Amino acid sequence: MSILILFACGHGNQASPEDFNSFYEKFNTDESFQKSRIIFPLRGINTDEMSVLDTVYYWKKEDWVFFPIAEIDTSQFNYSIEYQPALVTEEVVSKEFLGQVFRRKYELLNGKWYLTYQADVNL
To answer: What superkingdom does the record give (predicted)?
Structure first.
């Protein structure tokens, strides 16, 4: 009987993973929440700040500018989002300017979603 009680107590301590859609809405409307849910230095690509020899760019927490992705104008941009169990990738591609791409990757870490990668490409 004591084994059953220990199992039941231990099992109840596991929290459900955070819902991505709830996280995403808050991430794009709350500046301090956004900053708290980014793994800094944030790895990615930022062609405006990179030389042709650079292969990776790192955003620093102190230099981060709040950047919400609001509703996407689908007449000017293609928007896609891909859901996997612990990874969500979103991409915004300009229909008019080839080479203008914005991509973000979010990972579920210890039950919470975090932005772990960002690419801001303007070729």
So the answer is: Bacteria
